[in-house]
Amino acid sequence: MTKNRIFLLLLCVLLAIPGLSGIFAGTQAPQSGNSFTDREKQKELTGISRLTVSCITRLHYNAAPLDPKKAEMAFQEYLKFLDPMKVYLTQQDIDGFSKDPKAFVNSFASGDLQLAVEMYQLVRQRQKEYCDYGEKLLQNLPADFFAGNDTYRIDRKTAAWQSKPADLLPLWEKRLKNELIVLTLSDRAIEQEIEKKKEAKEKDLPEKPKKNAKERLKQRLDYLRRIGDEMEPIDVAEMFLNSIAAVYDPHTSYLSPVTDEDFNISMSLKLSGIGAVLTTEDDYTKIVEVMPGGPADKDGRLQAGDRIIAVAQADGEAEDIIGMPLQKVVRKIRGPVGTKVTLTVLQAKNGGVNSVPVKITLTRAEVMVKDSEAKGEVRTVRDENGNEQKLGVISLPSFYLDFEAASQGDPNYKCASRDVRNILLDFKKQGVDGVILDLRSNGGGSLADVVTLCGLFIGQGPMVQVRSRNSTETLDDEDGGQVVYDKPMIVLVNRLSASASEIFAGAIRDYGRGIVVGDSKTHGKGTVQTVKHLDPMMPFMVGKKIKGGSVKITIAKFYRVNGESTQLKGVTPDVIFPSFFDVMDLGEDKLDNPLPWDTIVPARFRKVNGAEALEAMIPELQKRSAARVAENKDFRMLNVDIARFKKIQDQKDVSLNLEDRWISYQDDKKVEEEQRKLFKLDGDSKDGKKKKEKDIYLEECLNILQDMITLKK
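-> structure tokens emitted (713 positions)
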């Protein structure tokens, strides 16, 4: 494949972490307003809906009409958008909406929004009833409100719908009680922390909330009542169309034209304020990825899987964001560089939605390109015989490439492969004996650049296959077969290593060039998306120019040179470490309706010299690493923490007894404090600077690389 062909393909390939939607600007948006009866607006939205459904059903990798089975799946997806916690709608409601099978199927297949609007309006009515019920309950709480042995099902994804509207009231009471308990526990935790710091004569005391738990819950109800009234018809259309798109795969979506002037999104929802990738899940704003070099990454406390429930500006009062549209959440988190934002977070490792909220204050900053560049470090270590070795570590947060400079013919355009090449050349000058390429949490990037990077270690040959509905193309490295580094190498990955990272790891494995080490598997995103802009076609649909938004459609799949797809299964490492990510809901296999794993005819390639010897070495490498991990106290503590986390995660029900919950919180906190020592060294260094965090995975990876060098000799 020529370089020009690669660049053309790059224009339509999106390699970001999956599960996210983008928002695109156009020339003229449908007029804003809350009316669902405006005939002109209905005409515009109907045109957008029909065109979107047509694009998805005709252009998708698995293009097919929206038949009755798919229509039913889309209906279930729409229910997830409207009522993810199953607290507003009932089985009686659902049966009523789908009682006419023919009309039901036609409404989805043709993009008819009438059913979608009716369902949304019923949910809004129930939300208001819930808020009214909650306010009355909070006015006269009985003395024994937090006593007894009652429980609440916090994970309601698999729960049955309540039979009829009257059955919702007991559920609402339990939900309100649980929310009030969480807020009360948060207040107690802050009080406890204040007392602890006072005893230690510390001056940096946590700030108490300005309002008590009951007042904050009432405030949350007030907001919930208001937020639905701010929804516009285009928002409902977006939910409806994304429910149809989700049937085909989790990366196909309708991209609404609604956006804020100062909010520039580029398909991955990267926030310039704190450096994080967000999505929504069950009314919560969830962290998908922490961007390398950003404020959140440097702070270290915010992690993938955490949920943000409130946002405060500088020293201002925290505003509840549960149920808030993602665009509005982004506006509150973003802000001028140098200003502070305080996030109230439910940490995934400490129980997720069942944990006590913690506050994390970050100073907003731009995520500079240099913070995401490849970085090299030489580590001097001694082997088991006391011989000194130099081992190189390259950290690569993403496969970046300056497309604009490259398209303009700049021979020195910025890209990951060129930076890694320079680091490798420097390593060779220093006599480095082996290299670790750290691709942990690398969500992907430039397809052309990952192919070039593979060539630095492998030479010339096919690196990845791309299969569309009608053809299969093989992408080769075309730099003349020059191998820059030929000594032992390891690729370090985790569950957040996706897309281009998986292409690289798969190529290194298939050619027998090195081994892969890390979590039980990589992310498993092996699909390619393109964006279809609707604006040019809107005059033909509605008779005038309006902004119709875009449709992101999956059009192809990636395959390794051995013929195996990277979709769903990802790449399985040769040496596997225990990891939190392996027990968290991360990865393609955790998403709804993913495309399946499959195989195609392998590409014609030849393994590198020494591949058979390396393959024979792997069992011994596994054995040695397993023995070290079993004896390592840090890994033993990590396994305890993972088991604790999994127990919390598997817990479907929680006690509604306040004192029981407080005792559980105290027990969990003791374990948490012990585990903090796992990743951070106690105290400061002599120069007053904080000591570097432990990286037990990288340390063991260095041990494995030493073993590779020793066994090779």
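The two ends are 38 Å apart (CA to CA).
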